[in-house]
Specification:
This protein is of the alpha+beta class. It is built from 15 helices and 22 strands. It folds into 3 domains: 100 residues, Rossmann fold (3-Layer(aba) Sandwich); 70 residues, Dna Ligase, domain 1 (2-Layer Sandwich), CATH 3.30.1490; 240 residues, D-amino Acid Aminotransferase, Chain A, domain 1. The strands form 6 sheets. An 8-stranded antiparallel β-sheet has the order 13-12-9-10-11-14-21-19, sandwiched between helices. Strands 3-2-1-4-5 form a 5-stranded parallel β-sheet. Strands 7-6-8 form a 3-stranded antiparallel β-sheet. Helix 4 packs antiparallel against helix 5. The structure holds ligand MV4.
């Protein structure tokens, strides 16, 4: 088993990884920037190393500092969490070259899935249904036009180096294609240093369903069911749930088999997520793969009873999966609300400052993954996630009732949060029926229901 792990991340996921290490008897070292000196992860970890000033480029994204922190503290592994360098193949490679274990897949797997056009090609070759679109990146706007006319508008231009909706642009017709192509290319170049674009048929009404996979270093690959992630604002997920209200056992097995085949095709190792779109007719299409632990992993942990972060650490240490696919059972229903430091009443204005009082909810079936404490000062330098509120019930109705109770119980004063929005969504008739698609949140906000 690993002896000592550097946690190259911050916030709630750093706390989550410290907890998993503690339970496995692994010593934890948290890398922190000057803005996170008083963070909960620093307080809970066995050791902590300051890796630089607040700007991510000088701290959590600065590989030499993270690597040095791991080496000077005698770590034998690095856990990247999510975001920052978690899907950077060079970071995984340099960790490996320094004789340390990267808690995640091989650099090659990260690289192929990081190029969203190459990912589509690899998954198509593996036999997965892939969203209709370009075979590889687009050489010109003329090539884009020819393809768009073949598959039919509306189409989506997506940045090959993007992902998670970043660098995505809807094109409704031929007339708008040249401008959209030039703008998307320039934005991708500016954001990712790579202007390559690919094209997909745009599904205006769909469900965003992702499948969790887990693979060890001995060829065992299983899936852990799906997560419903259609409720997103500007491609940031707000509410996720497992299982999806619209996925039955037959569809789950088909999507799971596809996800496992895709993971096998790239010799995937560790925890990974295959993202699909499900159309109203029940057809699903691969769109991208995330080669990291995801924010929303707790809902899968709740319904399967597995600890995904501990499995990441065991797999990195070379241990075999002790669960076969036949052993995976989904029990009950789990839902996660992301509590962000944003004011939904003021167009999600970002918030920073002191948390005067933090009183988390409790009781049966409620879990809070957070780095908050009363008196904690939320720094302005990083993403807005303060806490993940997760509720489990024996069925969806009980999970919803528990989430409503948890949202009402939770006290966070000092900064505005998304809790009031979640409370409104959890009382919305369409949401409670499970009748929503990728368009739902936009329509809910336009209705002024909140
Ligand atoms: C799509 C799509 C429809 N058609 N791709 C990909 C990343 C994720 N954050 C959003 N993604 C989507 N990709 C095709 N070809 C719909 C989504 C999507 C979405 C789009 C707009 C508004 C909300 C959305 C919520 C989930 C998924």
């Amino acid at each position: 088993m690993l002896e000592k792990v550097l946690i190259a991340n911050r916030g709630e996921i750093a706390v989550r990884i410290v907890r998993a290490c503690r339970e496995l008897g692994i010593r934890s070292v948290v890398a922190y920037s000057e803005a996170d000196r008083d963070s909960l992860a620093v307080r809970l970890a066995d050791e902590a190393v300051c890796i630089g000033p607040p700007p991510p480029a000088k701290s959590y994204l600065h590989a030499p500092s993270l690597l040095s922190a791991a080496l000077i503290t005698g770590c034998d592994a690095v856990h990247p969490g999510y975001g920052f360098l978690s899907e950077n193949p060079y970071f995984a490679e340099v960790i490996k070259q320094c004789g340390l274990t990267f808690v995640g897949p091989e650099p090659e797997a990260i690289a192929i899935m990081g190029d969203k056009a190459a990912a589509r090609a690899a998954m198509r070759a593996a036999g997965l249904p892939v969203m209709p679109g370009s075979e590889q990146t687009l050489a010109s706007v003329d090539e884009a036009r020819e393809l768009a006319q073949t598959i039919g508008y509306p189409v989506l231009l997506k940045a090959a180096a993007g992902g998670g909706g970043r660098g995505m642009r809807i094109v409704p017709n031929d007339a708008e294609l040249p401008r959209a192509f030039a703008t998307a290319k320039a934005e991708a170049e500016a954001a990712f240093g790579n202007g390559a674009l690919y094209l997909e048929k745009f599904l205006p009404v769909a469900r965003h369903i992702e499948i969790q996979v887990l693979a060890d270093k001995h060829g065992h690959v299983i899936h852990l069911g799906e997560r419903e992630c259609s409720i997103q604002r500007r491609h940031q997920k707000l509410i996720e749930e497992a299982p999806s209200p619209v996925v039955d056992e037959a569809l789950r097995q088909r999507m799971g088999a596809a996800a496992v085949a895709g993971a096998r095709a790239i010799d995937y190792i560790g925890a990974g997520t295959m993202e699909f779109l499900l159309d109203p007719e029940g057809n699903f299409y691969f769109i991208e793969m995330n080669t990291r632990i995801q924010v929303e992993h707790p809902i899968t942990e709740y319904v399967t009873g597995l600890d995904l972060v501990k499995w990441q650490l065991r797999i990195a240490a070379g241990e075999r999966l002790t669960i076969q696919q036949a052993d995976v059972r989904m029990s009950g229903h789990a839902i996660e609300c992301r509590v962000n430091a944003e004011d939904p009443a003021r167009d999600f204005l970002p918030q920073a400052g002191e948390i005067e009082l933090y009183l988390p909810p409790g009781g049966p079936g409620v879990r809070i993954d957070s780095h908050l404490y009363s008196g904690y000062v939320v720094p302005p330098n990083y993403d807005s996630l303060l806490a993940k509120m997760i509720a489990w019930g024996s069925d969806r109705a009980e999970a919803l009732a528990r989430m409503r109770r948890a949202l009402d119980e939770c006290i966070i004063t000092g900064v505005a949060t998304t809790i009031p929005l979640h409370a409104a969504l959890l009382r919305d008739e369409r949401f409670c029926r499970g009748d929503f698609s990728t368009r739902y949140l936009g329509e809910f906000l336009e209705r002024g229901a909140f």
